[in-house]
Design brief:
Helices cover 9% and strands 40% of the residues. It has 214 residues and is mainly beta. Strands 7, 8, 9, 14 and 15 form a five-stranded antiparallel sheet that branches. Strands 1-4-12-10 form a four-stranded antiparallel sheet. A three-stranded antiparallel sheet has the order 2-3-13, with no helix packed on it. It has one domain: Sandwich (Immunoglobulin-like). Strand 7 (99-102) and strand 8 (107-119) form a beta hairpin. It is globular and about 45 Å long.
């Protein structure tokens, strides 16, 4: 655990009065816009009141729903690993209250990791958006040669790795059941509340993808 704590100490170095930017680098999360744009799919599905998606608030209401599904991949493009740790006893400053047990997936997710919204031409929320919880882990290497080191049991994202949530998973959607046909924008935000320590001035945490609802 000592080496994990050392990683966290590095991950939390975010400036703190040090002007040497060649040394001070931190976690920098970014949403892969291409992954969203290339996996968008619109379909209709039926949900029972007891379905996990309804119970966990990922769907607006039970019954027949029209969903816009997509992949989300969050990449750590910074210079330090994001180290969160064991959900039962996470690394400081995180606490077990930052996690929830997902009955659908059978493991703990970090609360409010991302936020999904559909917005109209006036930038008003048009579709049912929600905060999506993630099990942070290394799913796909994007850059560098660092090995995979995080899983649902000890969570985080290694530098150069992305955490992928596929469009087939619960919650990987915006509910557009009552949305009129037209042009919209899907807005995906990672770390919307700033709970995860990130490098100030890093990559944007928000991506916007145009969507046409037929």
């Amino acid at each position: 655990m000592g080496s994990r704590s050392g990683l966290l100490a590095l991950a939390l170095v975010l400036g703190c009065g040090n002007d040497d930017t060649s040394i001070v680098t931190g976690v920098d999360l970014q949403v892969d816009r291409t992954a969203i744009a290339t996996t968008l799919q619109l379909g209709t599905e039926h949900f029972a009141p007891t379905d996990c998606a309804v119970v966990e608030g990922a769907i607006a209401a039970p019954g027949r729903r029209r969903l816009l599904r997509f992949d989300t991949v969050v990449v750590n493009r910074g210079g330090r690993d994001l180290v969160v740790g064991n959900p039962a006893a996470p690394e400081p400053p995180f606490t077990p209250a930052d996690f929830e047990l997902s009955p659908c997936h059978g493991h703990y997710h970090f609360l409010g990791f991302a936020e999904y919204e559909l917005r109209d031409r006036q930038d008003r929320r048009a579709g049912f958006g929600h905060k999506q919880s993630f099990c942070m882990l290394d799913s796909r290497r994007y850059a560098g040669s660092r090995p995979r080191q995080f899983s649902c049991e000890f969570q985080g994202i290694t530098v150069g790795w992305g955490d992928r949530y596929g469009s087939d998973l619960d919650g990987q959607w915006v509910d557009v059941t009552d949305v009129p046909p037209g042009d919209y924008t899907l807005v995906v935000t990672v770390n919307p509340q700033g709970t995860l320590p990130e490098l100030t001035g890093g990559a944007p945490n928000v991506v916007r993808v145009p969507v046409v609802i037929p």
